[in-house]
Specification:
mainly alpha, 17 helices, disordered N terminus
């Protein structure tokens, strides 16, 4: 899509502060399950209390650590311990269902497989987590699939499925973006019926999907495309600052991307839109001038005649815009009756931007104040004679 230049339970967290563990233990010990080894349960509880006393504040990683111990206690109570045999069996059942395109049933099997995996079964657990996400994807539950892919990415930073997950995230983002472009969903209206879309903010989640695709595999096939797509999304929404950040990122980090020229062209338009006048920050104007010069000097042969003409026309206006900034400063000093400083800035305009309309205006204004005093008359000057310093 072109844009014209001027157009399972891997980690349980307990929310809040965990309190009154003694009463919980008392209730557990009151009616122990006949299938539970009481010694094992006591050891698990002792570990939990020890962790709470050492790690202390009941928030953040401490809470997560206590939560893991609590889950461990629960699994002992209900006799639902990790089992390699059970995990492998569930995985095989899920794979068979996946092959038969029974994605909903397969997802449940893969989820159960993760629960049955022990800490050592990292490879099997990663496979099950990824295939659960794949089930949601092929079952057209894109919101759940996106969350599950992110879960895999969070738990396995160097996952061997990175390339495939990046491709899936990119395609999900593109689908959400196209749906939003077609139907213009209200950002705050909840979605209860379409499992293909997120609950809120379809377009915003499309940008999140593009960002996740790029972060998931920064040097992969879809990385530069994901950055470009995110920038274009912001551009169409008129959010030029965010769009410019994406285009800057692509130009700096993907110099060999096939989108590089288009990114520079759109970034030029973003910078021009970000510049709001001579009384405000000049950096967008300076950046725009650098981009225009870079396009002509390095990518001139790749631009068609009309594009080169438009960029050169933009370049011709930079001098006028910069001259207007000096004119604004000169007018400020003139209004304050600091005519010496005003004459100095009018001189800068005539010297630095001789061919502009502002230069002629500066020449006229300079003549009007040529014989006026450099500074305004000082009021109460006579007081220094009444109250000498010494």
């Amino acid at each position: 899509m072109s844009v014209a230049l001027f157009a399972g339970c891997t980690s349980m967290q307990v929310r809040g502060t965990v309190k009154d563990w003694d009463s919980i233990a008392a209730n557990i010990n009151a009616n122990p399950s006949p299938k539970v080894d009481q010694k094992t349960l006591d050891n698990s509880y002792d570990t939990l209390i020890k962790d709470q006393k050492v790690d202390g504040d009941g928030t953040g990683s401490d809470v997560e650590y206590i939560g893991d111990a609590f889950v461990d206690s629960y699994r002992h109570i209900v006799n639902d311990l990790p089992s390699v045999t059970a995990a492998q069996s569930l995985f095989k059942e899920g794979l068979d269902l996946f092959t038969q395109k029974k994605y909903s049933a397969a997802a449940k099997k893969f989820s159960s497989c993760q629960w049955k995996c022990s800490v050592k079964d990292t490879v099997l657990k990663e496979d099950a987590m990824f295939l659960e996400a794949e089930c949601y994807f092929f079952d057209n539950k894109y919101s759940k699939a996106f969350k599950q892919y992110n879960k895999v990415a969070k738990n396995y930073e160097n996952s061997r499925y990175s390339d495939r997950m990046a491709a899936r995230m990119f395609s999900i983002g593109r689908y959400w973006e196209n749906m939003y472009d077609k139907y213009h969903y209200n950002t705050f209206a909840p979605n209860f019926w379409d499992k293909r879309r997120p609950m809120f903010d379809t377009n915003g989640n499309a940008r999140k999907a593009f960002t996740s695709a790029q972060l998931q595999n920064a040097n992969g096939t879809f990385s530069d495309a994901a950055v470009m797509a995110c920038g274009n999304n912001y551009f169409r929404d008129g959010r030029y600052t965010e769009a410019s950040e994406q285009y800057d990122h692509l130009c700096e980090n993907y110099p060999n991307s096939k989108y590089i020229v288009r990114a520079y062209l759109l970034n030029l338009q973003c910078k021009l839109q970000m510049y709001i006048g001579s009384h405000y920050d000049s950096k967008p104007l300076e950046d725009a001038e650098k981009i225009a010069n870079h396009l002509i000097n390095f990518y001139g042969p790749e631009l068609d005649a009309q594009m080169r003409s438009e960029i050169k026309e933009i370049q011709s206006h930079f001098a006028e815009q910069k001259a207007q900034r000096d004119m604004a400063i000169a007018e400020y000093y003139k209004d304050k009756k600091y005519y010496g400083a005003a004459r100095q800035y009018y001189g800068y305009v005539q010297q630095d931007y001789p061919g502009t309309e502002s230069a002629q205006q500066a020449r006229n204004e300079y003549q009007k104040i040529a014989n006026l005093p450099s500074e305004p008359a000082k009021k109460f000057e006579w007081l220094k004679y009444v109250f000498p310093e010494d």
